[in-house]
Amino acid sequence: MIKLSKMHKRLLALSAVLPIGSAMAQTEAAATQPQLETVTVTAQRRAENIKDVPVSVTLLKDEKLDVLLSGGQDIRFLAGKVPSLNVESSNGRTFPRFYIRGYGNTDFSTFASQPVSLIYDDVVQENGILKGFPVFDVAGVEVLRGPQGTLFGRNTPAGVVKFDSAKPNLDKVEGYYSASLATHKTSSVEAAANIPLSSEWAMRVSTLRQHRDDFVDNTYTKQNDSLEGYNEHAERVQFLYKPSTTFNALFNVHSRTTDGSARLFRANIIKKGTNDLVDDYDFTKINTNGLNMQNLRTNGANVRLTWDLGSVKLFSITGYEGVDNYYSRGDIDGGTPTGPGFIPFQVQTGGGLSGLKQYTQEFRVESKNPGPLNWQTGVYYFKESGDGYSDNFDSTTQLQTSHLASHQNNEAYAAFGSVSYDVSSDFTVRGGLRYTHDQKDFRTVSAVNVVQVGATSVDESKNKANWDLSGTYKLNQDVSAYARVATGFRAPSIAAASSSVPITVADAETITSYEAGIKADLFNRRARASLSVFDFEVKNQQLTVVGGNSNVTKLINAAKTKGRGLEGEIEGFITPDFKASLSGSYNFTKIEDPNLYVAKCAQCTITDPIGTNGLVSINGNPLPQAAKWIFNATARYNWPLANGNLFVLTDWSYRSKVNFFLYEAKEFTGKALTEGGLRAGYNWDGGKYEVAGFVRNITDKQQVIGAIDFNNLTGFVNEPRQFGVQFRGGF
């Protein structure tokens, strides 16, 4: 036996402690590095880590949302801010149109449907007017790409944009307030308060107020500062009732009121043979002899009941959405008989929606099995009815010259189910099925000075089953891969008649989509990345033909549309005080129908083949508003101080060129658009208070982003540069 001296014993003890101490030091060093929060989404109607969800999905929340909305922006702020998403509108702050992976619908008619579904607090917002509800006091915005027909249903073949309001809680009184002031006296005031009322009841009140002064001069009427202003306010009140751990009820009442200018159409703003603005373009001036106005009032309520029965949870979601009144009027030719430029004839129209009522009911049961098998199933009911109308006016007298009113009833019901099974601790398969019946009844109820061609009423119905199948494999605790195949369905659409076009119907469209991707947490969760690839085919795609040589709208179907692409996102901490993100997408779309021709515009330069009948072939064209490339980049740097933090944040978005319409024309090809923002400020008291200055469209990019495709080269433009300041506080 070897006898150790005291010195030897000390050296041995020290050598044993050193590796442990070194490991402890490394652990402590790692612990001081910031980590990204776990992202939880409800893309599969359950709360799950985004890494485990077999869907290409992006979540926007907290500071990212606050930065993008600080200058009083409406829901179009989402355009190009996440991969494969575009949002545009020819109606200004109302009636937004969404596109995911290039797949959307340019239809602006009263009862137009879209293949992208917008869902607010688990209630679908079907009509385009409802989709423009302001974004305030929300917990997050999820963008789900690809068909979501099994669990969400209701016209989701392209995807879903999902908003979740911040919910009341029983814990404590808390809330926030925010106020900003920007260029053209643009103001935005937002506030929310959570108030526990008892041990079982809590209330959350949220409000938004937005205003912008008129600042565009009408050179025809000699009225200065007469256009481009708006007033917007919206409210939401929620009550939570939670008498036990097994039952809770959430009540939600909300409303919106907005008025101000409609979209300003500008005659001959595009230089002939190009997509450049004319040399004398000035955003602050317009020459128009038409009246311009817009007003909207909506309201809604929903009730969400939840029972936890041990092995299962039962949900009941009852929703109501209504449009009390919507009216928009504008000068469609964009000018006067004297110009600017050559304007063959004057066109001034107004249109609206009244008495729209939407009722939805869903019952859903969700399992809570500790084992490998879990499922959810439910039934769904949808009913909508409303009256839409369009008017024409004499631009000299401003008197109404014609009136056409229509009524539509839409009723649908569905049954659905989804199953997931853990084949092993690393591999999970999921499958879902949904059966839908959809019925629409459409009729003309009034036609003044409109000679309607064809039938005055149309009934359409369709039954369809959709399904999806996916698998998720965990390569390790930080990396997972998935593959998914899914189908989707959009019910038939009906468009109102006009003097030369009868009521038109687009048959139901279907999609089959294939997708695969990988998601990873990197560098001890200091970074996160995802990459997805996809391929889809749409059969019988519904398309909207607008304009030509006359102001008409009609629906058609394309035999086939194909699309493919990829999406990638990465974000993380470069240093403990420097955080950055980068995302992008590539979307290729192509219409495949050699027999499909549409009317062309009156004065533009067509680049597609023109048939002997004078119509334009759109075979081989990309879908309208489908940008091939979208990129986003953000960077935030923080300087810690003794009592707070200085910070600077910049965000940039890019989308490549787009076609405004089904045909391709030099003037009606929107240029690539790059826009950036900058925000710098100081926060203190643990981030409770913040003051910041900001600028949007920092480079003052000015270009045409949409057009009217008849009469003349009428277009509309993006928002000008905006400077502002904001203060935000919490309690």
Automatic annotation (TrEMBL):
Domain TonB-dependent receptor plug: 50-160
Keyword annotations from UniProtKB, A to Z: Cell outer membrane, Ion transport, Iron, Iron transport, Membrane, Receptor, Signal, TonB box, Transmembrane, Transmembrane beta strand, Transport
Single biological process term from Gene Ontology: iron ion transport
Any one GO cellular component localisation term in the record: cell outer membrane
InterPro entries found in the cross-reference section: Beta-barrel_TonB, Beta-barrel_TonB_sf, Plug_dom, TonB-dep_rcpt-like, TonB_box_CS, TonB_rcpt_CS
Membrane association type: Multi-pass membrane protein
Motif TonB C-terminal box boundaries: 714-731
Main localization, broad class: membrane
Presence of keyword Secreted: no
Domain TonB-dependent receptor-like beta-barrel span(s) in chain numbering: 268-698
Keyword rRNA-binding: no
Secretion signal span: 1-25
Subcellular location: Cell outer membrane
Sequence motif: TonB box, positions: 38-44
Pfam families the record matches: Plug, TonB_dep_Rec_b-barrel
PANTHER family to which the protein is assigned, alphabetical: FERRICHROME IRON RECEPTOR-RELATED, TONB-DEPENDENT OUTER MEMBRANE RECEPTOR
Family affiliation: Belongs to the TonB-dependent receptor family.
Name assigned to this protein: TonB-dependent receptor
